[in-house]
Write a structure and sequence with these properties.
Helix content: 55-70%
Radius of gyration: 31 Å
Shape: globular
Strand order of the largest sheet: 1-4-3-2
Strand content: under 5%
Length: 757
Amino acid sequence: MMRTCLLLAALVAWPVMAAEPQASADIASTDPARAWELFLDKAEFEQAYPAYDVLDKVGYRPDGVDAALCREHADALNAAVAAAPVSIVLRRAAMLCAEAVGDDTGAEHALTALAGLAKLALSQASNTINPKPIRVLRPDDAYALLHASGLEYRYDYYAEVAVKRYFPLVIAAWDPEAKLEHHLEFDYIDTIQRIDRKDRFSGFPFNRNQYVDAFVDSQVKANDILGLDIQAVRDAIGVAATKDKVAKLRVTAERGGIQSALNWLSLCASKPFPGCGDGFVDAVLPQAEKQYALPMTLLAYAYAEGVGVKPDAESARQLLDAADKRWRYDGATLTYAALWAINHKSALPDALRQRLVQAQARGNANARLLLIREKFVANPKAAFDDAEVAFLSEPKHNGLGSGYAMLAGYHARLKHKQETLEWGKRAAEAGNAEAQSNYGLALLDGDGLAADRVAGERMLAEAAHGGDTWSQRYLASLSAQQGRWADAEGWLMAAVDSGDIKAVLFLAELYEWERPGVSGKVDRAVEIYRALADADNVAEGRRRLAVMALAGRGMKKDPGQAKQWLLADAEKGDHASEYMLGMSYLQGELGNVDEAEGTRWMERAIEAKEEGAYADYGYWLYYKKQTPQSRSRALELWRAGETIGAAGASNNLAWALCTSADAAVFDAKAGLASVGKMGNVESLGATALDTVAACHAAAGDYKRAAELQARAIELLKKANASATASSDEDDTRGYRDRLALYARRQRYIEPVVRKQP
């Protein structure tokens, strides 16, 4: 008991950083922040996580240990501390064991390390909205921190349904002296991801998903409400009807699931149906009667909105007042206001706004932030004043860059490019995933700042780990272009896990072509496409199946079935299906060539500005039909496609302009202008680079043409990494022939292919 008192005092007085730690000292005692740095840099998951098994061996529990077991397993405990030196619970176990066996020196040493780590952890706690969570190695450390600091556990819940960079575990802890409830956010997923260096998906966001799912699954199997709660919310997300969602949430909410109750309440407030709120009050009341602040707040909101009870504004106010008295930093009012903002598009009610004004007057920064947001809800064209800019730019409001991101978004709306970049950079550096994605793209493109591909890709990787699905897909695309197929799958998996349809299609494409290093083959691709087509009604799934049926890839060749898949969506006005159906008729893939029917569908797609139609229909007209009129129409189509940003149309137009033997068509200057519209040359694939190189040669810049052609050949080789040596030779032959021409300072002239009679 004495050392517990000493520890509480140490948490007040202990310096987090010591200036000159001695080499012989335990670095966790002298410099806990440095101890964490070293651990994240050097530790191995396979050694650190099993170290916690020693807790059972020494009989660890919140109020003590078994002295006899401590003696028996002393070496194992020392080894565990050495394997996981940043673990708060292992340090606490070491202190308790030393006390139990009468080892005062060992107890003092363990106390010092425990105090340093606990002080560092508590220094990371934040009252701000969207804070950076406290880093721990395992959940056990979070609960041990409460025991070490004199706080009492009340309840817990996960703050998010899906992992992003973090998967915060919120513990509501009671401070018996201040008579206040603290909500402390912890994260152990980012720590695991940093030290897991051997998993197939190490270094990719999906590694985080794997660990979250493993923790939740183990909690579900153990009938732990923490896991059951989040699983119920995930199940509810997976069904469409509000009634079905509520049914998924009801049972878990009745058992005390915080997220289930919160989501149930939000659904019935925003999308009510008869009987929606039946049983809600009874579900939340047991915890509210224990004076748990968040359940009290949810009950207050239910009374205000009439969810499961007659609307009663006075009861709502009284409950909210009582919750605020127990929840540190006006937590009840802030949570209530956030719920209102989620469920209503209108401005805050006057009484609620007044509560925020009063909280702001008491110095509550979160209340001020909500009021600033409310200002723009009332008037989207409002402007930040100098005081608001200063407030939002304070580091303490930017644990994950939220304030900086608001300023970046504000300047983006005003089209202030430089200010948008400056605030966006600060938000990105603070950990805001959306800002990281935007700033990473700006670095790649050199848009408003010096282009830096390495820094741009690094920033996009940070965004991907923060849950940004666009960045995940972009990095997958980049990996695929470079023939790193396993990496492409790695980047995609988290986006697939989140239900991103574009990512699912991309992954299925990797499986369809059986790229080396990926975990699926063509049969798996067919399964995915069928699921998208049938269960999710995704037209692209049917289009992919149609292409496979036409080619006889992964299934029996079946033009009739392919036609049905394409017609199903084309007849409903799906323009991509119109264009694919039209091309199938023109190419004779559905039987004999049917130019009339093909042209009819292609013109419908063109009228709807379907980008792919411009490139492919133009190609058919130029190279297949081959009349003067059709070639003129092809050039016309490609130019029209270019005006709407169709990169394929620009590519085909540039190729024709730069390689044509027809003097009436050849125009190197116009060709270079077209390739300039195809995107950043650094991010182009082999086929596009082949075109860019041809245009530089046509313009007389043979050195640049050779550089680009050599890069195109390397990209093509990487993309064909699974091919045999002979087929790879065939794939690159034309590219190499053109490179030889450029070395001789000659442009490439496309041979005239005469149409067969």
